[in-house]
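Sample pair:
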Amino acid sequence: MLASGSKGNSIFISDGSTSVLIDAGLSGIEIERRMASKGLCAKDLDAILVSHEHSDHVRGAGILSRRFHLPVYISPQTNIAAASHLGTVEDIRHFECGSGFKIKTLNIHPFSISHDAEDPAGFTVSQNGTKIGIATDLGIATAMVKTHLKDCSLLILEANHDPEMLMNGPYPWHLKQRVRSRLGHLSNEESKDLLNEVRHEGLSHVILAHLSETNNTPQKALDTVSQAMNQSHARITVAAQDVCGDLLKIQ
């Protein structure tokens, strides 16, 4: 996890042969810096995938694509909506939610999620029987989301807000309503319920993502979502906004 939160999101995934970014919501220079801090080099990337057009997910995608000649995988609707953030990108590759595709050795499956964007996507990334599920920026966990997140070795799940902190916090009412809506963000409790439905014995890691700096705390998120682990041996951690997470290796 290179960054996670309302100021920028980006995830690095590699099988040692193919390396991709899921979203690039920081500046290109900052993404390069954060990768370098973990011994990674942006010139070794093979592609960037974009989940939706909000700037905290797409800000650096265009510049990285131009600098390193990277293809950008994006849905047609998101491509149109993100045009002002992306700028000119020579290699755009469109995908449709629900239709899987390959990037070299990685199998990618985008699936529709409920969020206030044109065509927002979650992703699974799999190779040799190991699957990573990514579902952030979703207002509700639909049956489709739950289906795609089953049988994952690693899950990256949104735990955006504590409902009490949100309602008692400084956000204006219309923004509180947006966050709580079906097109907003998952609360800690909703993330716990989702995890409870998709966890299984083969799950080794859970990363809680897109925490609100105003309406949540890492400890609140952990305390709530961990209740779904039910003596599981899976490791559960919280992704941060300002620093990279650990480079996790999944067998």
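Residues 92 and 129 are 28 Å apart (CA to CA).
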